[in-house]
Amino acid sequence: MSNCYKILNISTGRPFEVCDITEQVESVVRESGVLEGTVAITSLHTTCAISVNENEERLFEDIRNFLLTIASPEGSYKHNDLHLRINIPPDEPENAHAHLIAMILGNSETVPLHDGALVLGRYQSILLLEMDGPRERTYAVQVVGVS
């Protein structure tokens, strides 16, 4: 049984952004030498998510519009009452909507590996969804299986 664990970083450029991280995950899989197993991808933040879906710009706009309808940045949230919270740094953003969206989407995905490749459908990609950017984001990739 082989195991490979990597921490990867990505810079996001907008408040809400969808980033395709499939190639970076594939690179870790190649480096691991694992042929049969699984890869787990986990966001190390509470205001971004990991999802498997189609890499298509117009779909990204639909995703953004849909999610921001569910949890609008302009909504009234107790988390955004920064003056009522304890030990808040001066640069703390009002980002309750981003936390809520991340909870809906989830912070991780697990993808099977077969013959050294990710088992993804024709239109599937591994996506990191930023809801509170722009920021530097970190995600973990762990590959487990046999060589």
UniProtKB/TrEMBL annotation:
It holds the Pfam family YjbQ. It comes from the Bacteria. Coiled coil: none annotated. InterPro entries: UPF0047_YjbQ-like, YjbQ-like_sf. NCBIfam families: TIGR00149_YjbQ. This is Secondary thiamine-phosphate synthase enzyme. It comes from Candidatus Thiodiazotropha endolucinida. The lineage of its organism: Bacteria, Pseudomonadati, Pseudomonadota, Gammaproteobacteria, Chromatiales.
